[in-house]
Amino acid sequence: MSGQTSRYRAPALDKGLDVLELLAEHENGLSQAEIAKALGRSPSELYRMLDTLVRRGYVRRSATADRLMLGLKLFALATTHPPMRRLLQAATEVTTEVAEATLQSCHLTLYRDGALFVAVQADSPGRVGLSVRLGAEVDLLTTGSGLAMLAFQTEARRARMLSARNVGSLPEAAAEAIQVAVALGHVMRPSSQTVGVTDLACPIIGRTGDAVAALSMPFIERLDPPGSPSAPDCLRLLSEAAGRLSVEVPPAVAGEFEHEEASVPS
């Protein structure tokens, strides 16, 4: 490390960022002792830091108060940038409309900092439904959202997205799914995570012609009420909604996505 870099270090800030990055990798959270062990520090070193992060909303305690997990504060900050806010406001209205029309849940995912996460989510209006948690990270290779994002990218950008996740090359199953998605313009396939669920996903296209987000639905066949929309019916409505949102993508959002991907080392 150079002398100049050492001179301007902020150890307390480094410690806090280390905690946030660690918790981002553990969806179910960690105990204070586990955090200290993973970071090579003593629990007493981290006590005040963790207390501050909890108080400010960046970290939250589990229901039993024995584990700490990432809060939604960072997510909230990431989505308050004006151009992004415009897209998310439009998506909030659209996902709600789709959920009401299909009796299914609907969500929008965004790719940021090497990860795909749920930025907008609308529950099914029915008594029973399946939904993906707001703020949840979504796998790029095994979900409809991830495959829709990967399918509608240039080869170079797709490679950078995979590299950011430490994936050297596409697994055969994912490569085949992407080929099908490109040909059809959408993803419609059995869920690889939940039995009985069909992943429906459509890309939201920015000004560069690449996907900047994905609009998705974990479709479950409903027997009640009779005549509930079928998977093809839901896919049609989802595709129409994604087209409407593509028109709403501000140039700044597409530009940010392009810049971010270009900054990821190959």
UniProtKB/TrEMBL annotation:
Q: Which GO terms describe its molecular function?
A: DNA binding; DNA-binding transcription factor activity
Show the coiled coil region(s).
none
IclR-ED domain ranges (all copies): 73-251
Q: HTH iclR-type domain location, by residue? A: 10-72
The record's section on Gene3D superfamilies has: 3.30.450.40, Winged helix-like DNA-binding domain superfamily/Winged helix DNA-binding domain
Q: Which PROSITE patterns does the entry mention?
A: HTH_ICLR, ICLR_ED
GO terms for biological process, alphabetical: negative regulation of DNA-templated transcription
Alphabetically list the UniProt keywords. DNA-binding, Transcription, Transcription regulation
Q: Looking at the Swiss-Prot or TrEMBL record, what is one Pfam family this protein matches?
A: IclR_C
Output this protein's name. Answer: Transcriptional regulator, IclR family
- State the organism named in the record: Tranquillimonas alkanivorans
